[in-house]
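Recap from last week: sequence in, structure out.
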Amino acid sequence: MISGASADIGGEFTNNLFSDLAPILALFGEQVAKQFLSESTGWADNILFAMAPLGIITAIVSAIRVAGFPWLRAVIGRSKEGQGLVELELMSSNSRDVGEMWNGQAVVRLVGEPTIFQFIYESNPAADDPYRGIHILEKTNPLFELSHPDESLLSHNILIPPNISLNARGIPVSDMEKWVCASLGVLVQLVVLLYEAAITYYSPLKSKSIFLKDGISASPEAFPCTAVGTIALNLGMLICAHIVDRSSIEEHWKIKKKKEDKDCKIVWIQKGGTVNDQVFEPYIIHGHEGQRKIITSRRYDIKPPTSLQYLVLVATAISVVGFIFQFIGLRGMTWSASIAQLAATLVMTFIRSVIRRRLTREPHAEPAIKEFELE
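Predicted structure tokens:
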């Protein structure tokens, strides 16, 4: 009798452990979430982040740091935080506060004002080209043009550090690939919800011992609670990711049609010196050959509108309530429902890493002669 009671206690403990595993693990993943959010440049990225999310707390805190009410930033202990640190950790942009430099091994982001210049090099310039195939990125650039010039909000200032990470790590992932992966993410989350519905309501499945909760079928109310919580959490994460994405403005430059046969690449010349107490040597950094697209990203310097601040409040509330509902719902279901959600999180983490595969590549860089790198 004692051994039977011990077995019941052990089984209940195991069931509860697995039921709690997925939602609790989804709360963490700070660096993974920050890395993905800092490279997001559109709705496809936001949807990818929101499906079976990892780093829920980080996403909520990030949205508050970017555009939350002052009292909300004080709640999370960020009331005195400068905009430069927020941009450094969460945004894809560069500004007078934040820049990117080559430290000899990798491109690093840092707070400070690095001296680095960006040039577009054309390997076979026309004989009458007065610039010998070397150009800067501006509206009169003969090689590249803005995809949506009427929507431009940026003032292209050569003194603002250029975006190396967005352009130097190989060919950017296409929008089509991002949307395919985002659609796959929605499908993965939907499959998990359908599975949870099946083991709750479909008689041939819910009566099997593996799908029983404490020896009986899961409560019919558990799945609606789980479904509402999951959908609310997905929506909250989507809004949080959008808020972070909206904090910077991206422009996409594409090569002109009449120049598509040209072989172009970006070259960055980095002046050596000390930036934010870090010593950097002079380097010439080479982008990839056959550059067809250039992305620029700048911080949205206008104070967040009140509507966006209220949106942060709504996103925070939806995310917290959604997580609570999902947690309670999964607790009322068999452990396999929680494992299914955990599997979805792992699958989506892998898909997100595939979309960010450029981060594993580094550009080619060669040392320059100090004091003569910009001569």
